[in-house]
Amino acid sequence: MSFNKRFFALAIWLSPIASSYGRTDHLSQSYSPHATRPIARAYVLYARKVWREIYLNEKQNGPCFMHGKEISKVIVDGAKNGLLTTYIDDTLTEIMPQAQFLKNLQISGEDAQTTTHEFFPKEISTLRLVEHVIFNKITARQEYDIESIQLIVPGRNHPPTYLDHTIATFKYKDVIDYFNKLPFESVCWYNTANAAENLTWIDAFALRLFGSRIVKVGNIDDTTVDELYEKQPGDGKRLIASQKLAVEIDVETEAFLSDY
What number of other Cβ atoms are within 10 A of residue 178's Cβ? Predict the structure, then answer.
């Protein structure tokens, strides 16, 4: 028997032994169970987990914040009607009870017992995305995979505390499925220059047409950009740090790894 045949026979004999320990090759699994575009770990050359905030009242993000068609309104309506599952936070491990979700939508006055009304969609004007930024060995391209989306009322819209107020977190895979079931007009990213090029919000997010600010990059201390610069006066350094991170992650890394 030749060496190649003996080696092949040995491999067949050893294969059941290798799998008898009940372990799954982690390189064949996706980098995230919540991935919308799963990629086997073996194909991931580089990955970072990034938290971004989208300020919907900025002009660039206006196409998903039109009056009466705000993305925050559409998502809230889906959750109210049981079409979207709400989660406590971006770990996506604990489901938020419907009663808690409805309570988070309420505006409380100075008297904790007094409830005035729900936040208007225009007041829920911040989206926080958690995504994986990945360089794919096979395509030699950088890819973005949004994992979760969180609705936030910014502090300026949240008296009397004036602190950011989280409504709920949603799995982005669920959001995609929900948006795909709605009429195009309900999820339209309107192109003011050419209505023939109108897209859905899903397409616009995939094409990175939104404007955002990086607020955190995965680190062992779970430190945000603001926390890194909280002892320094003014917001300028925080904004500059966020912009530098965006250049590093979104531009420089792909250029470097493409050459590599």
Answer: 20
